[in-house]
Amino acid sequence: MKPIWTLLSSHVRKDFHAGYYLTVALFLAVALYINYTLDLENSIIDIYAGQPRRVPMYFALYGVTYFIACLITFFFNGFPVGRDRKRFILYALFGVGVLSLSSGWPYTLAVLQWIGYKDN
Q: Which domain holds residue 60?
């Protein structure tokens, strides 16, 4: 237990930046407030259940929150440069896109049944 505590305290000493953590906490509070006040998923996105337009709606929902969190991190820790920036952007867009397809694509069950997938 002592080595874990030593590693954790060393990490916090090196990494801790009050402004960064306060900014992330403020962003999380605002994002949660907006999400639960507007009930984004249940009241807005789920109205279009079974329609492909849910994919870009989920992309916007996930993308905005993810990229704002990334911008906060980059502001305090430095932006990636050159090839790293391009790679980050491509990977991030791909990841948010896959998540959006997974959440919003209305034909997932039909495709799974078509390829013969059976849930045990």
A: 2-114
